[in-house]
Specification:
Distance between the termini of chain A: 48 Å
Largest sheet of chain B: 7 strands, antiparallel
Pfam families (chain B): PepSY_TM
Structural class of chain B: alpha+beta
Number of strands of chain B: 7
Oligomer: heterotrimer
Pfam families (chain C): DUF3325 (PF11804)
Helix content of chain B: 55-70%
Chains: A mainly alpha (about 100), B alpha+beta (about 575), C mainly alpha (about 100)
Strand content of chain B: 5-15%
Number of strands of chain A: 0
Structural class of chain A: mainly alpha
Mean pLDDT of chain A: 93
Number of domains of chain A: 1
Distance between the termini of chain B: 37 Å
Radius of gyration of chain B: 27 Å
Protein name (chain B): PepSY domain-containing protein
Largest interface: A-B, 40 and 38 residues
Low-confidence stretches of chain B: 556-566
Organism (chain C): Uliginosibacterium aquaticum
Keywords (chain B): Membrane, Transmembrane, Transmembrane helix
């Protein structure tokens, strides 16, 4: 997007970025925490150690994607990555969990 | 829409900082007060002004105090119908519920002791749950006598929760709002460092004699940069403390099966019984267990006092006693638990040293929760918190200064609104906090519901400050200074002086008494801080008056704003 | 009270360290000494070294007073407090810092 866009389109862009940064970033980092925890448990780490490590990383990831939501050139790519990533991570967490528990 | 990376960071910093800065301001200010929450409690509850006490004898003091506890009526009314299985018979009356759990908690700064009990619901719907109706109390550990429970501990029960939840309990909205603010703090720090072109070259730079916008930005950068590690780690660790429970509770959602399986494995490994056996059993001497725990800690080169004591499954053969060390000599929180069999006093389990990840976590949360004994570091934390406030406040004022002439010319109310909110949030917050202390000394100790009154007046004063700032804001619309800044500074000075005087009149504890005759630093410290606040506020008010005068005399000269609020 | 002694020393060292680091910068040197910084390039280099050493020694003093985890926190917070003190001194009473440099010659 460039400066040549009209004002309502700019405002839509900002609104999308805010949505991407807060709920989008939250869903993405939630998935990251869940998937990472399950992966570490699959590798043999105790559950709470894995969870704690991922919570620390997850907060940094959240802050990172928050910044990226505004720094990135394309809003649509940001939305696609965050929504897609959230879905993939959460699905992977569930699959990993099923594999560990079976 | 953003033409450059730097511009996108500036947009983020400005608008998220403005939107959540008000919340962050409260987090930093009440956080700084929370560093001395126990001391503020002593100031506000004069009958608890005595020296901090170690965990008292369980057998002589605590057991009789626990025996006097009764299940909390409110908790009973709320939770008993949900937990009790009506098919098995009528509800057990509140006073007849059998105790299942006792706990007591103290730190090196507590004269009084917090204790509590969990009463068992005898006929529960789901026997697998904890099924507890709770009771909480505060006692004088020297005698075991209860401290009146309807008094508000202004430091640890009002300022401290204000700092992390804004005392907004509905749906935990306060905790989530503060969480978003914490995240925005991290983001604002990163974007702020990116925007700041001369991070090292202007590390020591503050030019008060330059024009207002320049010196404001200097101060904003200075307070942000010198305490950057503090700002970053306090925002980060604050988020971390709540992350597992509120922000990313994955172990209670999609990973719950994995979590539950781990709990079963862990319970098997530790050998600590999860359930009652149903066989009555006596209680051995808990004093002997505490002595044994202290001996074992000393043998591991971590001699210390008991900080937290918990008895599980009371009166049952599966009962056990968990004893935790008070973490006053290190950053990591209470720990090194030793568990004893309640009926015999034999050691069931001594918790091994932590692995790397939990140890890091305990360090990070411990550095925020600060149970350690280190007065210099405590004061440095206060300084860090106030630097955070100064950073945010200068950010607000910079926002206003940058736009007010433009807005004045265009007739837009933007700068006036932001300025009024900033006044209410900077000086208004201090007025509310100090005013609450004044009211605490004015209301009689025996007044029922005194704590409620104090809370209402706290909100009332704060609201009043916002209204006052809004009503007096007209000059901002003409690109001048809002006189509310000056007037509220005078209000702070007057209230802080009044608080010190009222403390003297109502308790006889004047500064000579608390510093020299019978040193009691908790109260002396609060009084001295109030006096310092009064002095600073009066100084700020006088300078503001001078600048307002100057602006009136030479309307063409740039009007300036004082920035000493902290 | 050996801890109190080490902590006091740590405070003084970090304050001196920050002041020397500030004086090593051309703009602050001129502000304090009221003479061109270019003439004192050698002294300023020396000051930079002294400042870094003082901050390192402050860390050592913190380590002597407390356990390492605690010492790290005290040191970081002392750096913040000292940098602020130096910045405010430079803004309002720069002449006070002149003596600190006389110590080093």
């Amino acid at each position: 997007m460039t400066r040549t866009h009209s004002r309502p389109l700019q405002q839509l862009g900002i609104a999308l970025r805010i949505l991407a940064a807060i709920p989008g970033g939250w869903a993405f980092s939630w998935g990251f925490v869940a998937c990472g925890t399950a992966a570490l448990v699959a590798l043999g780490a105790p559950f709470h150690d894995a969870e704690t490590a991922l919570l620390m990383l997850g907060l940094l990831v959240f802050a990172g994607v928050f910044l990226w939501s505004f720094a990135a050139r394309s809003v649509l790519r940001v939305c696609a990555v965050l929504v897609g990533g959230a879905l993939l991570f959460n699905a992977a967490a569930l699959l990993l969990q099923r594999a560990i528990l079976s | 829409m953003f033409t450059s990376f730097r511009q996108s960071m500036a947009w983020l910093h400005t608008w998220f900082g403005l939107a959540l800065g008000y919340v962050l301001m409260a987090c930093f200010f009440f956080g700084a007060l929370s560093v001395f929450d126990r001391e503020i409690d002593r100031w506000a509850l004069p009958e608890t002004r005595f020296a901090p006490q170690p965990m008292p004898s369980f057998d002589k003091v605590l057991l009789p105090a626990f025996a006097r506890l009764e299940a909390d009526p409110a908790d009973y009314a709320l939770n008993m119908p949900a937990l009790h299985d009506a098919a098995k018979g009528p509800q057990t009356p509140r006073q007849e519920l059998p105790p299942d759990e006792y706990w007591a908690y103290t730190t090196h700064r507590d004269p009084v002791l917090a204790i509590g009990a969990g009463f068992r619901v005898p006929q529960p719907k789901d026997p697998g749950l904890e099924n507890h109706i709770h009771a909480n109390a505060t006692i004088d550990p020297r005698s075991g006598a209860a401290v009146p429970s309807d008094q508000l501990k202004i430091g640890s029960q009002w300022f401290y929760p204000m700092h992390y939840s804004l005392n907004w309990q509905w749906q935990n909205m306060g905790i989530f709002t503060v969480g978003l603010a914490g995240l925005v703090m991290l983001v604002a720090l990163v974007s702020g460092v990116i925007m700041h072109r001369k991070f090292f070259r202007e590390f020591f730079t503050f030019r008060p004699q330059k024009q207002t916008q320049r010196s404001l930005l200097d101060l904003h950068n200075l307070t942000g940069v010198v305490a950057l590690p503090f700002h970053f780690f306090f925002a980060f660790t604050g988020l971390l403390i709540f992350a597992g429970f509120y922000y990313f509770p994955v172990s209670q959602f999609q990973l719950k099966p994995l979590h539950d399986q781990h709990e079963i494995i862990e319970a098997r490994e530790t050998g600590l019984p999860h359930q009652r056996a149903g066989i009555p059993a006596p209680l051995a001497s808990v004093d002997a267990m505490m002595a044994e725990a202290k001996r074992r800690w000393a043998a591991r080169d971590m001699a210390g006092e008991v900080g937290f004591l918990q008895l599980h499954h009371l009166g049952d053969a599966n009962g056990y006693v968990s004893i935790y060390r008070a973490g006053s000599d290190r950053v990591a929180l209470v720990g090194e638990a030793i568990h004893f069999k309640a009926s015999s006093g034999e050691v069931l389990r001594e918790e091994p040293p932590r692995a790397a990840v939990p140890a890091l976590n305990e360090f990070l949360t411990g550095l925020h929760l600060q149970h350690f004994e280190h007065w210099l570091l405590r004061w440095l934390y206060v300084l860090g918190g106030l630097l955070g406030c100064a950073c945010i406040a200068t950010g607000f004022i910079f926002f206003v200064e940058k736009r007010k002439r433009q807005h004045a010319a265009a007739g837009s109310p933007g700068a006036r609104v932001v300025d009024a909110l900033a006044v209410g949030c900077v000086t208004g917050m201090v007025i509310a906090a100090v005013g609450m202390l004044v009211v605490n000394r004015l209301l009689p100790a025996g007044l029922s519901g005194k704590g409620e009154w104090e809370q209402q007046i706290f909100w009332g004063l704060w609201l009043l400050a916002f209204v006052h700032a809004a009503l007096r804001g007209a000059p901002v619309a003409q690109a001048r200074i809002n006189p509310a800044w000056r007037e509220q500074c005078w209000a702070i000075a007057a209230l802080a002086l009044a608080a010190v005087l009222l403390n003297w009149l109502s308790t006889g504890d004047h500064l000579l008494q608390t510093i020299i005759l019978e040193p009691y630093w908790a109260v002396a410290g609060v009084d001295l801080s109030l006096l310092a606040a009064a002095g600073l506020a009066a100084l700020a008010a006088r300078r503001l008056a001078r600048r307002e005068q100057r602006a009136l005399l030479s309307p063409s000269a740039a009007p300036e704003t004082e920035v000493v609020h902290a | 009270m050996p801890e109190a002694f080490w902590l006091l020393l740590a405070c003084l060292l970090s304050l001196a360290g920050m002041a020397w680091l500030a004086l090593a910068m051309a703009v602050h040197w001129e502000q304090v000494m009221l003479q061109p910084a270019a003439r004192a390039a050698g002294v300023r280099l020396l000051l930079r070294g002294a400042g870094a050493c003082a901050l390192a020694l402050a860390a050592a003093a913190c380590l002597l007073a407390d356990r390492p985890s605690m010492a790290l926190l005290v040191w970081l917070m002392l750096l913040a407090a000292s940098a602020l003190t130096v910045a405010l001194t430079l803004a309002w009473r720069p002449a006070l810092l002149r003596g600190l440099c006389a110590l080093r010659g």
